[in-house]
Amino acid sequence: MDLDMNNIPQHVAIILDGNGRWAKEHGKPRFIGHREGAKNIATVAKAASELGIKALSIYCFSTENWKRPEAEVNYLMTMPVRYYKKYRQKIIDSGYQIRFSGRRNVVPKSLLNVMDDAMLSTKDNKGLILNICFDYGSYEEITTAFKKIATDIKNNIIDISDITPELIESNLYTKGLPKLDLLIRTSGEQRISNFLLWQLAYAELYFTDTSWPDFHKEELEKAIYDFQHRNRRFGGLKEAK
Ligand code: IPE
Ligand code: IPE
Ligand code: MG
């Protein structure tokens, strides 16, 4: 694909959807779809890194996904622990800096432990920032930011007049990441499902029917190609390309 390497989005977010449907199409139980989906995160992170993307945010478990059957939720809480233990050294050596976005007080301790290990062991890495959004929901993220800011005002640490978009941003999980350029959702749904509501303000949106386990480097390149042919005006005026 003929990509303009000077116009690669800095921050790409993906709603990885369709693991369950992919499994069904292959006559397999849903958990196999989740297992393939987890493996595909490594494939797509490698592709993103090769393309020069700086940050990749991946939506892996939402604050609403707890509504699913207990066995599926249990699998989604335990499979990443096994996966991480198996590939720990490979992940550290990849050069990615792993971050997490989401609530920490509901996720089981065994998973939090590996999340902390991944974060700490890769914090000095200089490669792709892989931001794993787990037990993430924008309502929760923004509510938490409101509470923190209100507490700081109450304790006279800041004044109401100090509230700016930058201050709000610095209280979100995505603090310090480049501005979101491109959101991809796989598997045909065209909705946001409580993902990065604030950060999406001027991101380009890309929807594909491909299910997540089948979304590989070529699909990512297609999304970037599409992104590069958008006319981003940010409210201003720009000559059509
Ligand atoms: C995405 O795949 C993974 C999670 C939301 C955990 P789904 O599990 O939503 O797959 P579908 O949408 O049922 O096919
Ligand atoms: C969004 O997918 C959440 C994640 C990908 C983690 P869902 O499959 O949960 O979204 P809905 O229910 O179709 O909106
Ligand atoms: Mg889904």
Which helices and strands occur, and which strands form pairs?
Layout lengths: L10 E5 L3 H7 L4 H22 L3 E8 L7 H24 L3 E5 L7 H14 L6 E8 L1 H17 L10 H5 L12 E4 L18 E4 L9 H12 L13
Parallel strand pairs: 1-2, 1-5, 2-4, 3-4, 5-6
Helix pairs in contact: 1-2, 2-3, 3-4
The structure holds 3-methylbut-3-enyl trihydrogen diphosphate (IPE) (2 copies) and magnesium ion.
How would you explain this protein's 3D organization?
There is one protein chain. With 241 residues, the chain is of the alpha/beta class. The chain has a single domain, classed as 3-Layer(aba) Sandwich (Undecaprenyl pyrophosphate synthetase). The chain has seven helices and six strands. The protein has a six-stranded parallel β-sheet, sandwiched between helices. The longest helix has 24 residues, at 70-93. The structure holds 3-methylbut-3-enyl trihydrogen diphosphate (2 copies) and magnesium ion. Residues 15-17, 59-62, 65, 189, 191, 193 line the site of one 3-methylbut-3-enyl trihydrogen diphosphate (IPE).
